[in-house]
Amino acid sequence: MLLPSLYSLQAEKLLPDGMRILGTARSDLDRDAFVQLVADSIHERIPANERDDVALRGLIERLDFFSASADNVVSMQGLSGKIASLRNGDVLYHMSTAPKFYGPACQALAAHGATGPGTRVMLEKPIGKDLASAIAINDAVAAAFDEERIFRTDHYLGKEGVQNLIALRFGNSLFEPLWSARHIEQVQITVGETVGVEGRGDYYDESGALRDMLQNHLLQLLCLVAMEPPARFDPTAVRNEKIKVLRSLRAIDRSNAGTESVIGQYTAGASEGKVVPGYAEELGRTSRTETFVALRAHVDNWRWSGVPFYLRTGKRLPSRSTEIYLQFRKVPYSIFGGPAATDMQPNGLLIRLQPEERIELDLMSKTPGLDRAGLRLSQVALDLDLHEEFASARKRIAYERLYLDAIEGNGTLFVRRDETEAAWQWVDAIADGWHDIGMAPKPYPAGTWGPSATVSLVDRLGHSWRE
Ligand code: BG6
Question: Which domains does the chain have, with CATH numbers?
Answer without folding.
Answer: 157-459 (3.30.360.10)
